[in-house]
Amino acid sequence: MWVLEPASARAGSTVQTQAVVTRVYEADENGLAQTDLKLLEIDGKRQLLPVTVRAYGMPLFEPGDLLEAELALSDADPTYDYGKGVFLDASLTSDPERIGRSHHPIYFFARLQRQLSLKLQGRFVPQIGSVAAAVCVGDRGGIPDRIQENYRYAGVSHLLVVSGLHLSLVTGAIGALLPRRRIIRSLLMLAAVLAFMALTGFTASVVRAGVMAIFVCLAPLLSESADSLTSLSAAVVLLTGYNPACAADAGLLLSVSATLGILLANSQFEVWREQRAEQKKHISKEKRECGRRRERVLLYLANAVFLSAAAALATMPVLVAIGGEISLFSVITNLIAVPLITPVLIFGLLTALTLGVPLLTVPSRVFAILCGGLIRLLNLLTGWIADLPFGVVHLQGFYPLVVVLAALGLVVLVIRLPAGRLRRWTAVLSSALLLCAVALGVLLDAGTVRVALVGYTQQPAVVITREKTAAILWRGGETNLDAVEHYLVSEGIDAVTLLVNCVADERERELDERFAPQVYCDAEEDVVVGVTFEPIDGIMVSVRRQAEGILFPITVEGLSLCCATGKTDLGGEPVEVFLAGTQQPDGLVAERVLVGGREAAWVSESEIKTQRGELPTVWIRPGVSMKITGVG
Length: 632
Known about the structure:
Blueprint: H1 4-8, E1 14-27, E2 32-42, E3 45-59, E4 65-75, E5 86-92, E6 97-101, H2 105-123, H3 126-137, H4 145-153, H5 164-175, H6 182-199, H7 204-221, H8 228-242, H9 250-280, H10 285-290, H11 292-321, E7 325-327, H12 330-354, H13 361-386, E8 392-394, H14 398-416, H15 421-445, E9 449-454, E10 461-466, E11 469-474, H16 478-490, E12 495-501, H17 508-515, E13 519-522, H18 523-526, E14 530-536, E15 539-545, E16 548-556, E17 559-567, E18 574-579, E19 589-595, H19 601-605, E20 610-612, E21 617-621, E22 625-629
Parallel strand pairs: 3-5, 11-12, 12-13, 17-18, 18-19, 19-20
Antiparallel strand pairs: 1-2, 1-4, 2-3, 4-5, 4-6, 7-8, 9-10, 9-21, 10-11, 14-15, 15-16, 16-17, 21-22
Helix pairs in contact: 2-3, 2-12, 3-12, 3-13, 4-13, 5-6, 5-7, 5-12, 6-7, 7-8, 8-9, 9-11, 11-12, 11-14, 12-13, 14-15
């Protein structure tokens, strides 16, 4: 790739560079932040194609600040970073020096985004302010893990990612205030679209929506009409031409697939509405007038349901392919939540813009109350939906993907067929075929053992499940606790047969209340040398105490996995999969290292094949076959 290859060639080197700060993420308790830098000069040589790196442990700077620093470069994570245009990670080898500021307009908008985000996060409690910052200006850095998980499980995580929905709301609100003259209106709308794209950081989903909106703005100037599919294609070509890695970016794939689903559904809905209007021509004028208001309400509701369902169906193959969760309540949740986003966006922006202005103190408080109240309602709704049992289905692997694609094809076929006996019989046979495919999938999955890394810290919990039972190796963290509880609910687990508290976590009562394990083991207190459990038939979990740490070997169907806490030594004993934590054991010999949650520093330096993901899972079938899903 024309940018990736030159960048990757510098991995492992230390360079003296002049760089500009493009983005600053949330700072930690030490006042250090993850920062994106564009390298303008490397070892005194001006770069024609500046590469973007992600630097860790940086002092706080502002977007647009020019720095001189010595950086140690390493390869970035291709799963999450390449699609965003970040090809290298960097760490400081000396203190950076600020030498000036770039006056490029893009950094003005980046600073404005940060300022508005900090205002919103400072005005509200974190659970509300972080959502306001994400919805209004596209800054998701401060959202608590539990809130993100609730929105994802409720099927409305797209509301926290600024995309076409947010852009259409902003441009619609601005358009209502603009004059009706064609040329002036189009130029002002074009400026508003470009400004919003810059304010939200030119993310892939915003650029996709922005390019489509630009086509709409330009069409009146050229006395033409904008074609949605052409605009979408142009946006995809532009993004992948600049950065081909965008083609594998999950955010862009979900955005494009949802847009395609909505466009196709909208065209079909228009056909259906025209047919319905044609049928009503034969009804008397009095009856048409009487039912016109009810007809409008029904059409609005039907259109909202139809488009929400189409977007959910269109994104389903992408979710299955990337190992994501599919919410069964997403259509209902979207019908309730999406209308609330418009006032949240408007009141949130007004709050940020008026906050701190003495003459606007009262209006600012009113806007804040309205914005905060609506976000609190959204948080309550998504939290309640996320806690419903069987509300989330985890579909991962090739077979579910084939079934989902076949289901979408059959749905399109049934819709395209003319109304009549053929359509009815096709629908019946398609339903029977899909039920048989689902039943076959259940049979194939019978007896399968899943070992998942669940949580958001550097030491996520290890959850072992078979059928409706589970065993948990608990490695601490409040956010991990919530994540494990959600995972057990979503998987429909009836019983926790074993819970091993792997760390000095003094919350036995809370763990017992949350999970009600049949057997509880505190590895720090109850194990002197070692002990072995068989929590589920055919699964052996051992606890081996060492001088400065504890090893947890897991044997499933003859395959060996292992995780650890503290400083440990495997002594060269090979394992198929090592479940990563904060430290690397001495003598680690493994086929691969599985990483979930946040990556520890040692992982990037390991020479063992590493696989990362949000919910990485090892599937072990009877007969000793293994696959790993939920990873990049």
